[in-house]
Design goal:
Clathrin/coatomer_adapt-like_N; single chain; Beta-adaptin; AP_beta
Length: 314
């Protein structure tokens, strides 16, 4: 009897606790709703920050969707980034409401600020709502040919996201071919992103990524000027390439050797992997000995790194 009474009291306490928490959440959301619709810009800005903070810790703020959307029409890049983050988070659960933001996305994709153009096209690609595809095609096409390399490199990665969402539409619109054309871009960031995007799409459909001899030279030039992750993407792509002859293999190996001196362990290990794979194409014993001699010191240095890196190096 006593155990039953204790269990009943515990159950009641749990119900009371749930009601209190629900009331607190409701009260906080009501307060945020009021602030999001305030006539004062700073109060609306602070409210958006609080909404994102609550969302980050797992609180449900989906009920504020329309109120957050009202604040999209702003020139404040920080607030726009936060609102776009909110939209990405709730796009799958509120697909119908996301469509309401399409006009703003399309408008932002033509903004004079390249950061806003890139942000708009990146967010549209990350929404993963199939209905958005109809509205995304024209802005994406424009951004792929944008005069600013930052916008172009963002658009290239957006194609990979869209390919995951609607493969047929991506190919019909010629976006995959546009990414292949980006391998010849004058900017190394765009080239690195194009390699990464094509390899990502190739994981879902064979034949998307095909590295040709005329492209290898561009990649070898781009690898020296790319950021770390870009270098890794290019080196991984080159390691899968089959050289036409021994001379080409030797040339590729010699041009990537400086990457062994890179401060980033991942770049070093990817370079080592490439050199080891190319040993099957290089027959000169003296050259192979030279490669081995240059690979050893950076590998020994990596043994002073974290255990996971030590394991790979060993």
């Amino acid at each position: 009897m006593m155990n039953a009474a204790i269990q009943t009291n515990i159950a009641r306490l749990q119900i009371m606790k749930a009601k209190v928490l629900a009331a607190l959440r409701k009260g906080e959301n009501y307060e945020l709703k009021t602030e999001l619709n305030s006539e004062y810009k700073e109060r609306r800005k602070e409210a958006v920050r609080r909404v994102i903070a609550n969302m980050t810790v797992g609180k449900d703020v989906s009920g504020l969707f329309t109120d957050v959307l009202k604040n999209m029409h702003t020139d404040d890049l920080e607030i726009k980034k936060l609102i776009y983050l909110y939209l990405i988070n709730y796009a799958k659960t509120q697909p119908d409401l996301v469509i309401l933001a399409i006009n703003t996305f399309v408008k932002d994709a033509e903004d004079s600020n390249p950061l806003i153009r890139a942000l708009a096209i990146r967010t549209m690609g990350c929404l993963q709502v199939k209905e958005v595809m109809d509205y995304l095609s024209d802005p994406l096409r424009k951004c792929l040919g944008d005069s600013n390399p930052y916008v172009r490199k963002t658009a290239v990665m957006c194609v990979a996201k869209v390919f995951d969402l609607d493969q047929a539409a991506t190919e019909e619109n010629g976006f995959v071919e546009r990414v292949r054309d980006a391998l010849a871009d004058s900017n190394t960031m765009v080239v690195a992103n194009a390699v990464s995007a094509l390899r990502e799409m190739s994981e879902r459909e064979e034949g998307i990524w095909r590295l040709e001899a005329r492209t290898v030279g561009r990649l070898l030039t781009a690898v020296n000027e790319s950021v770390e992750w870009g270098q890794i993407a290019i080196l991984e792509a080159l390691s899968e390439y089959r050289p036409a002859d021994e001379k080409e293999a030797e040339n590729i190996c010699e041009r990537v050797l400086p990457r062994l001196q890179h401060a980033n362990g991942s770049v070093v290990l990817t370079t080592v992997r490439l050199l080891l794979r190319y040993e099957q194409y290089v027959r000169r014993a003296d050259l192979l000995a030279q490669f081995a001699k240059k690979m050893v010191p950076p590998l020994v240095t990596l043994l002073a790194s974290e255990p996971e890196i030590q394991y790979v190096a060993l």
